[in-house]
Amino acid sequence: MKALDDEIGRQLARAIAAGQLRAGAGKPLEIDEAWLQTPPGLRMAFQVLKSAGIPPAEVELFQQRASLQASLAAADDEPGRLRLRRQLADLEQDIAFRLEALRKLGQG
After folding, report:
1. Dihedral angle over CA of 51, 54, 58, 63, nearest 10
2. What share of the chain is helix, strand, coil (3-state, %, to 5)?
3. Which end of the chain is more exposed for a tag (fewer CB within 10 A), N or C?
4. Residues near 57 by beta carbon (within 8 Å), at least 6 away in sequence
């Protein structure tokens, strides 16, 4: 069994040297709070996105929400505030629908 382990180690080292693998790839997944809060059916897909440096589309929606909230807090005219409140309500509804769809999809 040791000979097999040694051969696997050599092949991995060659693949890393050739640029076919990233050093550190294949390490066990980090089980953190985000992992536990992600529906089981979506965990691996989200982990692949995270490893590739690609955030889920919902992250952009959360950033838009934060921007709208900041704009609303800074708005000084009532028509502008009303417009921003409507945009924020629409966006929050979109976020809620997406999160519910993800939850259902993740439950399989």
Report:
1. 120
2. 75, 0, 25
3. N
4. 98
Cβ atoms of 107 and 41 within 8 Å: the answer is: yes
> Token match 């089981």: residue?
40
- CA–CA separation, 4 and 19 (whole Å): 23
Residue-level length of the chain: 108
Contact predicate 102/58, CB 8 Å? yes
Question: Which residue reads 């945009």 in tokens?
Answer: 87
CA dist 95 and 63 (Å) reads: 11
